[in-house]
Amino acid sequence: MRKINLGVLASGRGSNLQSIIDATERGEVDAEVRIVISNNSKAYALERARNHNIAAVHLSHKQFESGDAFDDALIEMLKKHGVELVVLAGYMKLISPKVCEAYRHRILNIHPALLPSFGGKGMYGMHVHEAVIESGAKISGLTVHIVDEQYDHGPIVLQKTVPVRDDDDPDSLAARILPEEHKMYPEAIQLFAEGKIRVEGRRVYTT
After folding, report:
1. Do 153 and 180 form a contact (C-beta atoms < 8 A)?
2. Could you tell me the residue range of the domain that residue 100 belongs to?
3. Which residues pair with 57 in a beta bridge?
4. What is the pLDDT of residues 174-205, one digit of tens each?
5. Residue 167: band (very low, low, confident or very high) from pLDDT cuts 50, 70, 90
6. Given the residues 52, 58, 111, 182, the one annotated as active site
7. How many domains are there within the chain?
8. For residue 44, is it left (φ>0), alpha (ψ between -120 and 50) or beta?
9. 111 labelled catalytic
10. How far apart are CA 199 and CA 152, in angstroms?
């Protein structure tokens, strides 16, 4: 099977990026990470990319006079590397309408809760797990979804539940969910690689 080309956007340590790279190198995912882009010049995700001879680029809004100019540069960089599927791995910036349109239904994100609950602006990382614990919810989990112009809003591709234990704190809940993210994200990418994803409105169908 032909491999699809991935472009990964990350802002931090990039543990999900590493899981994707590892899965591609093991032959579990018919994809190749062609470029990693970060808005944070010190992001360890960039170092992970370099360790695997993957193009690593720091690209930030601060480098451009306008958001539109940044969008153009980002799209150009992705296209230059032949990117077919954009994967967000802890990317802390909202994807603009222009970039969403350029890669409509071809941008993925993973969220450490069961969307549409516990999503939206400000709901990232440990903030999500804190909100889940405070709510009294007995079940949390993770969601891979297609990105649109709103935070954590696009059609859902895959979800998995993880129980919330009575003695959980945000750290312990995060520690149980993260390994599941590392398993599920490559699975979702493989669905795209196999051409099994069809999007109609707010729904994703796996063929």
Report:
1. no
2. 4-206
3. 37
4. 999 999 999 999 999 999 999 999 999 889 99
5. very high
6. 111
7. 1
8. alpha
9. yes
10. 16
